[in-house]
Write a structure and sequence with these properties.
By secondary structure, the chain is an alpha+beta fold. It contains ten helices and ten strands. Helix 2 runs antiparallel to helix 7. The two termini are 30 Å apart. 25% of the residues are buried.
């Protein structure tokens, strides 16, 4: 891995931390006024920032057009030795995180050995303590054998909402995102909040479909499995149930919001995502001292020298 790629990753990690700090107050405000689906949607800001950074790095350059150089002030300048040390620390840390996730995943899969098919894509497993859905192309719902049959319906409804929303895909992407930027502690905290928002948004969807009369039965189903919440083997790969206490409180206080309030919440989320793009580029970029490389991209020549990046077109 070249030093340029590592420094780009490190800079993105700093930007993501700043975005999380800006996102938390807005998330708290949205959670008080509107359904959880909007605070869940708000987390899309983080991958959008990475996509924007990738576009700035590898985006097309028009022929016979001089692209204005990107000049960052202030910048964090690292020496060659420090850059190499940090790069290898990141590589070793990434390998350790990925290995831990894979180990946790295969250990988790061992708990599913001997599962019995109940109906359709629903299975009973004796060695698990909490219900969950698993699988990308052909998702399955697994229920613990210790779960009382009277709570099958609310639990299955919840897991089917996860499957319909492709939350399983989202969890895998979020875990991969976390493994790539493991050095940013704010992302680990953000991941926990993200899972809570996902679970509570799923709870609200179930109540919206089933009606207010279903609220008590649904809350009791959560209480039934609450003492096992968070004990599922493999929680590191995304199989968390969120904060049960907060979920139950949200269920009992859930009320449908007006369409106008929802539209305002959508506008706020979109405006925040747009506003974080220039905000992120005000975060100090990490560069290497006395660095000078020349790389050709899409008919252009990009020269990196010290603290400034100049982009010029290739006339030949």
């Amino acid at each position: 891995m070249s030093n340029n790629i590592f420094l780009w990753i490190f800079s993105c990690g700093l930007e993501l931390g700043v975005i999380v700090l800006c996102l938390l107050p807005l998330r708290m405000l949205l959670r008080k006024k509107v359904p959880r689906v909007f605070s869940y949607f708000l987390w899309c800001t983080l991958p959008m920032n990475i996509l924007y950074n990738l576009w700035m790095l590898f985006g097309p350059v028009k022929i016979h057009q001089v692209v204005v150089h990107i000049h960052k002030e202030p910048q964090i300048v690292l020496g060659e030795t420090i850059t190499q040390i940090l790069k290898w620390c990141w590589i070793c840390g990434t390998i350790a995180v990925v290995f831990g996730m894979l180990y946790s995943y295969f250990r988790f899969m061992r708990c599913l050995v001997g599962s019995i098919r109940l109906k359709e894509n629903i299975y009973l497993a004796e060695r698990i303590q909490s219900p969950f859905s698993l699988g990308v192309l052909f998702p399955k719902i697994f229920l613990p054998t210790s779960l009382s049959k009277v709570y099958y319906e609310p639990v299955i409804l919840h897991e089917r909402v996860h499957i319909a929303r492709k939350d399983i895909w989202v969890k895998y992407l979020a875990v991969g995102f976390l493994g790539f930027f493991w050095f940013q502690p704010l992302l680990w905290y953000a991941y926990r909040l993200f899972i809570n928002d996902m679970e509570e948004a799923c709870d609200e969807t179930v109540l919206k479909r089933q009606g207010a009369a279903f609220r008590a039965e649904y809350a009791m189903a959560l209480v039934e499995v609450s003492f096992q919440a968070g004990k599922v083997q493999g929680a590191a790969i995304g199989y968390r149930n969120g904060e049960i206490k907060g979920r139950i409180k949200n269920i009992m206080n859930y009320e449908k919001t007006r369409f106008s309030v929802r539209m305002i919440a959508v506008c706020i989320c979109i405006l925040f995502m747009i506003a974080t793009i220039p905000l992120a580029w005000e975060v100090p970029r990490v560069v290497q001292m006395e660095q000078q490389n020349t790389v050709g991209i899409g008919g252009a020549v990009i020269r990196e020298t010290g603290m400034k990046i100049n982009t010029i077109t290739d006339d030949n």
